[in-house]
Amino acid sequence: MKNTETPVKKEETKSPTAENQKTIENHKKAAKHLEEAAKHHTDAAKHQESGHTEKAFESTLKANGHYHLAGEQQREVSKNHAMKK
Q: Under 8 Å CB-to-CB from 77, ≥6 apart: which residues?
């Protein structure tokens, strides 16, 4: 699998301020929730293939919960970026 990370410019490697650190943490939290959502969707597909529709439904609900939490973190990131302008 290819590395899909976006390269960071050298000029952006300054020591993070407290506000910048908060934005970094929000990015990381959003990414973690999206990874969890993907995991639960994969589980849901496996359960559905096996005919376990109730388990598939439960995994889908978990995935949706993580997706919602990721959205909250993304909104915080957007607020932080908007305040800097």
A: 23, 26, 27, 30
* Residue 16 CB contacts under 8 Å (≥ 6 apart), including other chains: 24
Q: Encode pLDDT of 31-63 as tens digits.
A: 999 999 999 999 999 999 999 999 999 999 999
pLDDT (tens digit per residue) in 13-29: 566 788 889 999 999 99
Q: What's the token pair of residue 20?
A: 């910048």
Number of Cβ atoms within 10 Å of the Cβ of 37: 20
Domain assignments of the chain as residue spans, ordered by start: 17-84
Tokens of 1: 């699998």
Q: Where are the alpha helices (DSSP H) in the chain?
A: 18-49, 53-84
Using CA atoms, how far residue 32 sits from 53, 57, 60, in Å, is 26, 21, 17
